[in-house]
Amino acid sequence: MPHHFSPRFLLPTLLLGIALGSIAALLVGGAELVPRQVFSILGQAVVGRAGDDAASHIVLDIRTPRILLAIVIGAGMGLAGVASQTLFHNPLASPYVLGVSNGSAVGAVAAMLWATPWLGQTAVPAMSMAGGLLTSAIVFGMARRSDRFGHSLLLAGIALNALGSALTAAAIFLAGERLQTLVFWLMGGLWQAAWRDVALVLPVTAVAFVTLILLAPAMNVALVGRRSAGDLGVHVRRLQITLLLVVSITTSVAVAVSGVIGFVGLIVPHLLRLFVGADHRRLVPLSAAGGALLLLLSDTLARTVAAPAEVPVGIITALVGAPVFLWFLRRRSGHGAWL
Q1: Fewer CB atoms < 10 Å away: N or C end of the chain?
Q2: Residue 240 has what pLDDT?
Q3: Distance of alpha carbon 249 from its chain centroid, rounded?
Q4: Which residues are CB-neighbours of 197 under 8 A, at least 6 positions away?
Q5: Taking the model in full, what pTM does it have?
Q6: Per-residue pLDDT tens over the stretch 191-205
Q7: At what angle do helices 10-27 and 64-88 cross, to 10 degrees?
Q8: In angstroms, how far is CA 258 from the centroid of its own chain?
Q9: DSSP per-residue codes, 166-195
Q10: Long-range Cβ contacts of 54-63 (<8 Å, 24+ apart)
Q11: Given 3-state DSSP classes, what are the helix, strand and coil percentages for the chain, each rounded to the nearest 5?
Q12: Residues 309, 313, 318, CA angle at the centre, nearest 5°?
C-alpha cells in the first residue's frame, strides 16, 4: 500500500460512495418500497408536491433526514478527529480523549431522567451541549497555564472522562423504568432522527469544516513542534484553543442528537493519513467525506441487519473500529510486534 498518492481520485470516490450509499439507504428498511416509488416521491417533493400517504412519510420524514443526519454527524466526527490528532500531536488521539463525549452524555442523561417533563424535546440536546462545553471549559481552565498544554489537556480529559463515566453509571442505577431507553441511547443511534436535528448539526459541521480548511496551513506548520511553529509565525496557543473549540462543539452537538458513537473520529483520519500523508489541506476534506461515508454505511447496516429490530449504530462502529484500531497499534509497534 503506498504511503502517499494524489487524493485526486480518493475524494471523488468517497463522494460517489456517499451518493450511492444514500440511494441504497433510501431503498432499504422495514417497509418495502420499490425504487420507482421512492424516486417518484423524491421528485414530487422537489417540485413542491409531496404526498400525504404512508410511503411519502417514510421516505421524506424518516429515511431522508436520517440519511442526511448520518452524513453530517459522520463528517463532523471526522473533522473533530483531525482536530484532536493535531491538538495532541498524536495520530491515535480522538475527540473522546478530552472527556467531552462523557460530559455531553452526563448532560443528556440528566435531561432524560429529570428535565424532559419540564423543558420538553429541547432538554436533551440543550443539556447535552451544556455538559460537553462545561467539560471543555474545565479541561481548558486546568491546562491553559501549563507549558505542556496538550499533555495537560490529555491528563485533565482522562480525569473528567472517569468522572463522567461514574456519573453516567450512577444515573443508570437511578434510572428505574427508563433504564432501557437510557442504555439504548448511550449505545448511540439515529433512530429518532428528524429534520430539526439536521438543522442543528449541519451548520455546526459546516463551520467546523470551513474553520479547519482555513487553519490547514497553520496545522501543517504546528506538526514541526510548538517552538519551531512559533518561529515560523504560527500563534500556537490560539491555534490550540481554536482546535479545542472545534472538537468540543462538534462532539457535543453530535452526542446531543445521536448518543455516544465511537471510533469514527479515531479511525477515519488515521486511515486516510496512511494514504495521503499529513497535509491537512488534503486530510480535512477527506476526513469529512470518510466520516460521512462510514457512519452512513454503519447506520444503514444497523437498521437492516436485524430488521425489524434495530442495532445501535455505536455497536456497529465499535465492531468495525476496534479491530482496525488494534491493527493500527500492531502496525505502529514495528515488524509485527505487539505493543
Answers
A1: N
A2: 85
A3: 11
A4: 65, 69, 257
A5: 0.90
A6: 889 999 999 999 999
A7: 150
A8: 9
A9: HHHHHHHHT-GGGHHHHHHHHT---TT--H
A10: 55/31, 58/29, 58/31, 58/33, 59/26, 59/33, 61/194, 61/195, 62/193, 63/25, 63/26, 63/29
A11: 80, 0, 20
A12: 130
